Task: inverse folding
């Protein structure tokens, strides 16, 4: 598959997921705004439901931001290119993490450097 075809396919998928997330978030937010009218006995499970929902909303919102970023870079024409070395980012990687801006090699290198640069703990004698 050519890079262009891959990006075109990704774009369709991202737009689809975007729509799904949007409507799912809409439902969840509606639920959260709904009047809470529960018997004292049911209070706990209601609170639990709401906590679960707000956690889910946070996850979905993050995913939506990732997708927005990915769609924006598709528009700009730099989607799927590594910011660091300019190589094509692995397609499998983009499918899992659509807003990836670095190839796996660079990502691992950055993480390794990050670990090395972290202040060493002093040895206490
Ligand atoms: Zn790279």
Result:
């Amino acid at each position: 598959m050519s890079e262009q075809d891959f990006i075109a396919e990704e774009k369709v998928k991202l737009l689809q997921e975007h729509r799904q997330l949007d409507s799912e978030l809409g439902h969840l937010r509606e639920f959260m705004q709904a009047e809470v009218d529960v018997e004292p006995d049911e209070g706990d499970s209601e609170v639990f439901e709401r906590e679960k929902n707000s956690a889910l909303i946070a996850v979905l919102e993050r995913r939506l931001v990732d997708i927005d970023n990915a769609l924006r870079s598709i528009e700009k024409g730099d989607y799927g290119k590594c910011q660091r070395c300019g190589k094509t980012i692995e397609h499998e990687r983009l499918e899992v993490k659509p807003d990836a801006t670095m190839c796996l090699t660079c990502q691992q290198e950055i993480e390794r450097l990050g670990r090395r640069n972290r202040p060493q703990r002093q040895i206490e004698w």
About this structure: The longest helix spans residues 43-76. The radius of gyration is 21 Å. The chain has a mean pLDDT of 88. The chain has four helices and no strands.
